[in-house]
Amino acid sequence: MSEIRCDYTIDYMLERGMTILKNTMNKKNVKFIKPIIAVLNLKTYIVNYSEFCNSLNREMIQIQKFIENELKCKTSLVNNLDKRDETMISLKIEGKYKESQLNPIINRCIETYILCINCSSKNTEIIKINRINYIKCLDCLSERSITA
Asked: What is the pTM of this model?
């Protein structure tokens, strides 16, 4: 029987485990801004798209590409429908979609490209190493590969 050698002390391992557990417990209820969906003239708009993408910590183009691929339709970024606030950008989706059709797609995007699988943190970033995209969690430092 071979002897297992460990360079970490028990106190260090316990402290590390407790830190990760506390971070996980604090991030169980991860909140995002809910997208506001409006339908006008056979086009669907996510009115608060720029706020929504900022809450996900992702660029607008990344979420737009995911929605395009899932719905198999054309999308574009437009100035907000509300003329009072010109800083907000809306996502225009060609076609008429209900909120009940868009919410599962948005949730799948969040689960696939935003949330960490290990600690459920939204504090992640997408990195590219040797033509492979990874999601790296900035809290627990775990990585997992994703499809582009």
From this structure: 0.70
